[in-house]
Amino acid sequence: MEKEELHKGRKMKNMQSNLKQKGLKEKSKGITLIALVITIIVLLILAGVSIATLTGENGILTKANEAKDKTQIADVIERVQTDILGLETNNGQKISKEELRKILEKYFEKVPNPLPDDLTTLKLKSKQEYGGQEIQVSKIYNGGLIVTAESITADEYGAYVNYGIDINGDGDTTKDWKIFYVEDYKGEGEGAQTQPTTGKRIFLISADYVGNNCDALTGTNGAKEKSSLQQATGTDTDTNLDKDCCYYWSGSNIPTYGCTLPNEGNTACAFPKLFEFSNYDIKKHASTSDSSTQYNNSKCAASLLCTGNWSKFVTTGGEYAIGGPTLEMWVDSWNEKEKGANNFSKLYAVPKSVDNDYGYYVGTNEGATSTNTSLSKVGEYGTDSKEGTGYYDTLYFPHRTTAAGDLDKDNNNEYESAYWLASPSAVSFASMMRVGCNGIVYDQGYDYDSCGLRPVVCLKSNVYLEKVKNEDGIVYYNIK
């Protein structure tokens, strides 16, 4: 009995021991699973932190890529700026727009031609060998861009230049002159016109008709007096415009050869041959005897071409001045800037080669036999006009009318209806060429008293133009 009880006790004790061990094993197994889950969670958190550290906005890889991009951008900027500095050092002046464009083309794709005036609006992508980075050009170069005779294009024709001669007495010269034309200088001249360095020259034209309060024109020893010009008075019966700024030649006061006309013995009256006057020898026809009226138109045209007559229009940066553009010059400027615009055809200045050989024809073919051609287009005046081109380009037509009797487009009644060209017309010995506010280039008697003057200035070869903007936002060029 006692043995049985002892046996049962041992058996119970063993069972309890087994149960305890089993519980411990199960408990151990449970702890292991929890630890594993916790470990995984910790690892995931660490992995997330590591990925964010590598690839996040402030991650190591992101920072590394940003550093790479900055290095590539800085490298391109340094390369361009080095090229610019080298060119400016060699030239002794600031860089031109065209020169900057050529440098940018070495490092960037799709560089626009021409460059915009405002470089802050231009972003370019560098070529792949330089990283393919997008860079704002103003971060590379934000200095003033210059224009030289060598780099200027027809896109700059019509831009304002602060030349320093006040044409209307308002005290502001920033909007009185415009870039009109660029031509190769042949280095030819007579009398005081020595043999200057050959090369391209920039020509300016007065932005509007010269006023009667312009000292260079109407003052003592001014161009009006020297060129035997008469000032008109009253009102134009065709256009109802005041004639305060109108000038003409009277039959009794035609310029005389040897004084107001060029003469090899008169050093005060130089006669530039810049425009290859061999097409029509104005000097030869102007040199006829004073009593002859056969070539009075050439005498009047020559008085506009005598640099001595217009010397008061020469100031800092100017080499010489003449009283107006020749027909050849006007046509060449027009063709460069407006050919193709509004379907206008190319113009030709054609010298008359038969009969009395009085002067020029003008037209849209090389064999033109008309003394007038119209550049206005029916129906374009008004809301469908295309400002800045063709008949609506104020470089060529400062004022416009829709038909005879109308005031000009700006309702300004202080200006004449046309301006003189420094070329004789083929129609007769008494006719000159002029540009009308109705869009017609045509002939007119030299005694017509409703034409104004737009002098032309040839700038020196060593000057350049630097673009600036005044407080009112007006953009113009200063002469340097």
Task: Give a nutshell description of this structure.
This protein has 480 residues and is of the alpha+beta class.
Features:
480 residues, alpha+beta, 2 domains, eight-stranded mixed beta sheet, five-stranded mixed beta sheet, 8 helices, 20 strands
Explain what the structure shows.
The longest helix has 54 residues, at 2-55. This protein has helices at residues 2-55, 60-91, 97-107, 215-218, 223-226, 282-286, 296-305, 327-338, and strands at 108-109, 123-126, 134-136, 146-147, 160-162, 177-185, 199-206, 230-231, 247-248, 318-322, 348-351, 360-363, 373-374, 418-424, 431-436, 440-445, 451-452, 456-459, 465-469, 475-479. It is elongated. It has 480 residues and is α+β, with helices and mostly antiparallel strands. The strands form five sheets. It has an eight-stranded mixed beta sheet with strand order 4-19-20-5-6-7-18-10. Mean pLDDT is 76; it is low at 187-196, 258-268, 274-278, 378-384 and 402-415. The chain contains eight helices and 20 strands. Helix 2 runs antiparallel to helix 3. The chain has two domains: 60-144; 154-479, no CATH class. Strand 15 (431-436) and strand 16 form a beta hairpin. It is 28% helix and 18% strand. The termini are far apart.
